[in-house]
Design brief:
By secondary structure, the protein is of the alpha+beta class. The protein has one domain. It contains four helices and eight strands, in the order H-H-E-E-E-E-E-E-H-H-E-E. The strands form two sheets. It has a five-stranded antiparallel sheet, with no helix packed on it. A three-stranded mixed sheet has the order 4-1-8, with no helix packed on it. The chain starts with a helix and ends in a 5-residue tail after the last strand. About 9% of the residues have low confidence.
């Protein structure tokens, strides 16, 4: 029994020491809810059609993204999603610096802002 507990404890410590906090908590992708008033607007992210509002886009955390929301008869809205360092990266200092490299390589050490897009489309004049 004691040997099992020691094995479990050693495995847990190794997993924490050799992984990044953000990788464990976040993963490399982030879900961004996108909505508009009125609904039904086309959502194009990085020149690729993503769907119509409301939708949830799953995007890589480590890169910036360009979002265009458009509906016939309304002025289109363009928004940039910026990649920033996630607060989870700082936990790596407590649990081992190797985690910083892991979080950076997986992209999990970043977060996209804003974390949600909700736009009011204006009718064209």
């Amino acid at each position: 029994m004691i040997a099992m507990v020691k094995t479990w404890l050693a495995t847990t410590v190794a997993a924490v020491a050799f992984s990044g906090c953000a990788t464990i908590v976040n993963g490399p992708n982030q879900k961004i809810p996108i909505s508009s008033t009125p609904t039904g607007a086309a959502v194009v992210i990085d020149d690729k059609f993503e769907g119509t509002t409301p939708t949830v886009a799953t995007l890589r955390r480590e890169t910036n993204h360009f979002v265009k929301i458009a509906l016939s008869g309304y002025d289109p809205v363009e928004v940039s999603l910026h990649s920033e360092i996630s607060g989870w990266v700082w936990w790596n200092i407590l649990f081992g610096l190797i985690g910083i490299a892991i979080d950076a390589s997986t992209g999990a050490g970043f977060k996209l802002t804003p974390e949600e897009l909700a736009v009011d489309l204006k009718q064209q004049k």
